[in-house]
Amino acid sequence: MNNGRFSARKALFAVPLCLALAGASVPLFAQSLTDLRNDAATPGDVTTYGMGWGQQRHSTLKQVTPANVKSLVPVWNLSLDHSANASMQPLVIDGTMYVTTHSHTLAVDLVTGRQKWKTPIALPQDVNGFLCCGIHSRGAAALNGVLYRTTLDAHVVALSMKDGKQIWKVKAADYKEGYSMTHAPLIAGDILITGISGGEYGTRGFLNGWDLKTGEKKWHRWTTAAPGEKGGDTWKPDMYKTGGGPTWLTGTYDPDLDLVFWGVGNGGPWNPATRGGDALYIGSVLAIRPNTGEIVWHYQFSPGDPYDYDGTNELVLAELPLGGKSTKVVMQANRNGFFYVLDRTTGKLLKANQFAKKVNWASGIDLVTGRPIDTPMTVAVRKTEEQADFIDVWPSAFGGKNWMPMSYDPGRRLAFFNTVNLGMKIKYVKQARPGGPNWWLGLELGGFPAPEDGMRGSLVAWDPVTGKKVWEVDSKAPNWSGVLSTASGLVFVGKQTGEFKAYDAGSGKELWSFQTGSGISGLPIAWEHNGRQYITVTSGAATVYGALAGDPELANIPAGSSLWTFALMK
Question: Which listed residue (94, 308, 409, 551) is catalytic?
Answer without folding.
Answer: 308
